[in-house]
Amino acid sequence: MKAAFYAGNSHIELHDVLTPTPGPGDVLIRMRASVICGSELHDYHSEHGGKGIAGHEGVGEVVSAPATSGLAEGQLVAVQVLSGCGNCESCLSGDPEHCTQARFHGGTHAEYMAVPAMCCRPVPADIPPDIAVLLGGDAIGTPYHALSRLGITAADTAAVFGCGPIGLGCIAVLRFFGARILAVEPVAYRRELACKLGAEIALDPTAEDAVARVRELTGGRGARVTLDCSPEAETVTMALESAAIHARVALIGEKPAASIRPSPQFIRKELTVYGSWYFTGPDYFRILDLYRRGLDLSGLITHRFPLAEADRAFAKFATRQSGKVLLVQA
Description:
Rossmann fold; seven-stranded mixed β-sheet
């Protein structure tokens, strides 16, 4: 089968490799579509690339599955790439991502992949692969998980810092909930896309004081909700400084380090601050309900490439002149 690998120094190579042989309890999937995640750029840009097949957001058709899995041949499934032991408190509460024995199952940028049955989320027949890959992956799963914990309502003004794929997904979900949305993003292409997806205004932090503008646009109070969706350290400061008294804040963008001033930035404002990483199985089924009730994802995928052109797809995504970039495997 064909599979994409991080070749190092901002290149992707397609190799012929053996089709995986499913182990006990595994499902063999013929991949139909996958999307590139911002977290992949670390391996993409690194000198030595990354280990294993690239990709961790995908959907495909079941080729074979254990009889006890409830999955049928030909059924479309979304791949959730973290699995747990199945017996601990985290797993039994629907949160295998925090299992101490959690395993990562990457490799969605390929023609086939094999994963434990517990990683397969059934996709209803009325949802096409290019929508299912958003609903069942980081693009919407991670934003929904964060926003559901924040208790978003139509009375909220939400400031989104960073309009990469996660920030754009947050904007799509915030629009569904009826919140007022203020976006902050240095790249003009993504500011325009943020407005198309539902932001009232998209501010350029390199051209103006974004924190001051958010406060001005909220009558001096600050935003009731702020979302840090960027890998940059300074957006943590922006999210905290822009938050109103008693606001809710979610830190969603992966980043290794940032500087904060706890007393003025959130202790004295009595903020509620959440760290939000991935999403759960129960989240997925709630997301399906939102989609059927009108969650609009049109415009979130801006570019499509066949798997054979994965190198071009990654090069486009790395320019930040895109939303989600889709790889079509079939």
